[in-house]
Amino acid sequence: MLVGRTLAASAAIAALGAASVLYAAGPARTSDHQDTLQLVSRPGADITDGYVFPSKNPNDVTFIMNVHPLIPRGMGATTYFDPGVMYQIKMDTVGDYREHQVMQFKAEGAGPDQKITLYGPAAPSTQGTTATFVRQLGTAAYNTTVALPDGIKFFAGPRRDPFYFDLTQFFKINPDRNYKNQPNPPAPSASCFRPPGQAMNTLANFNVLSLIVEMPRSMLETAQNHGRINVWWTASTTEPQAGGAYRQIELWGRPAVKEALEPFRLHEVTNRSEPYNDPALRRAIYRFMTAPKPYGAGRSHAIANALVKVLGNTNEMQVDLTSGGPATYLGVETKGKSGLPKGILDIVPGAGLKGLKKSLRNGAREFGGRDPESPVVDLSLGAIYGNIVSKVGLAKDDHKETPCLTSDNLTPTVNTLNGFPYLTAPV
User: Fold this and answer.
1) In terms of pLDDT, which residue wins out, 56 or 239?
2) Domain count, the chain
């Protein structure tokens, strides 16, 4: 038996090592792909994206956690979860931005017989960057959907990466964000995104490993916050100094915040911090927004402070479970104005947005969250380089926009499924 376990462990280590070599040798890409050197060497702990959106059944909500980016075409179904990682989806269900409910995931074994267990949802044993497992709910075989108690569906396996972004051009505009350029990134070699028709989705031919949970909204609605929750995602390992508990080495809250606005050298700090107590992110956002071009956005102090307030004070995705949907990224924070098409935001005066929103649909309650087709890149770029911050009434327009940086000129290139598990099969 000892020999069998040793061989199995050796095979698992070899498989992880081979995956790491392929990962490190591949192109540097991201939503949050490869954002520290440690994660480059351990792709199974690398969170690429998180999603929260209304399920096809209106009484349910779906959570997605994507990890292990840059799995090449044809290798999706033969890449497996890292059994040494605790994956977590953390939720503030009270309104104080601290985790009060968690869902945790852990893989056992390696290869096609791998099993992935879902723990929770339950109150965490501790809050913060160290954790132990909560109550076990059930287990899914790799690449299989299972029905679990309490009306929960669970899938764990490979999916096509739904994120779309012209990363190749982004790394020319901001070379610091590419790990291959560390520690001495070159000067920018481009000042604009490519025009429509020339932009390319760098991630179109890559896969990820997905942890997907569909559950009744009622499980997360509380009297304290009237159905509003804040969500973030973490990956943790049992580092020696953690005393046996799992210690956080990766944090993901909102898309394109850390990646676009924080210097690469500070990503490690943010990854090991709570989103509500990050010593680096707020200052990094302000500095990037006010720094002169081409090394910053060259915006006013008012615009910078507004973006810090929305994105940096608490790097958590806001969701209103009492709204019917659809998902509208930053919809809760902007009272629904972010849900308007970017073309509308560009041409309608700020004073007219409120009335326009009401005429289209009730803007009083917005689901927020994010689904795979949400235009998070354009919304983020529009806030950084465009006039979205002023249009939604968060700060006075500084008239320092850079129009050719407000969009990467891409639309969704990966279709999603019309039901669970929502993400398409690997390419």
Assistant:
1) 56
2) 2
